[in-house]
Amino acid sequence: MxxxxxxxxxxxxxxxxxxxxxxxxxxxxxxxxxxDKIISxxxxxxxxxYLQDAVEKGVETIATFGGAYSNHIIAIAYACKLAGIKSxxxxxxxxxxxxxxxxxxxxxxxxxxxxVSRLAYRNKETIKADFSNVYWVNEGGYGIKxxxxxxxxxxxxxxxxxxxxxxxxVGTGTMMAxxxxxxxxxxxxxGISVMKGNNELLKNISxxxxxxxxxxYKIIExxxxxxxxxHPPELIDFMNSTFKKHQLPTDIIYTSKTFYAVEQxxxxxxxxxxxxxxxxxxxxxxxxxxxxxxxxxx
Length: 298
Ligand SMILES: *Cc1c(COP(=O)(O)O)cnc(C)c1O
Prior knowledge:
The protein is an alpha/beta fold. It has helices at about 20, 40-55, 70-85, 100-110, 120, 125-130, 145-150, 175-180, 200-210, 235-245, 255-265; strands at about 10-15, 25-30, 60-65, 85-90, 110-115, 135, 165-170, 190-195, 215-220, 275-280. Bound molecules: pyridoxal-5'-phosphate.
């Protein structure tokens, strides 16, 4: 896998816009999306230590949980294929007549998919009991190993200590936990939740980071555009205009909502003049393939 995913491709893009100049702010984007088309962005960092552990333990099969549009599911399927390990995906919801692009690709990479009802899906331990000799990775890669991998993201920025604010998308909070761990005490880490009301987030994050009294971080709600994976026409328009203005491709689930949130927070004077902000582009572009063709200009 090390051969296909190329971390050296990661770079920092500086956004040029009048609204940044006017507020005397600098906004950079850490482009993790460029490391690989399939395991794009943060999933590579979150999975690497689970995979390493599974290989060291000599397991034959890795199993995990996820929804029909899950970047995590496709990343596991693809990484396992490359590593020569079998993969099992427990997919939330009944099998649809038409599989999402994500699931079609996961199938192509050899993932053995099991569809379970939303109700049954909640009972992960019961599902797990039906499988023996598999290495389980939590939904979304949530866990210490995922956090430890995500600690390697922030050091990829040039002059990382110079940023006053670090902004990232939040699903399970695993990536954010790693970024908090890697941040300096003078920096504030801001997580944009892509879910409608997930009250467990801060608890889940501190469950990975420990107490960390010196660290500053917060979760911002309200930029979910209707809920997880919802992508109304306004969001698609925003993605197209963001690409045209800044040559910045974003995904429908995480990074478009995060970039939108950053823009709005800047316009609302959330950041003191002189702030230097970095947004983590955590990848996920493959999810855009679930849209009707020609929805996006990139
Ligand atoms: C999975 C994912 C996230 C969320 O990461 P968590 O560690 O679960 O919070 C953010 N961005 C993209 C593109 C993702 O695929």
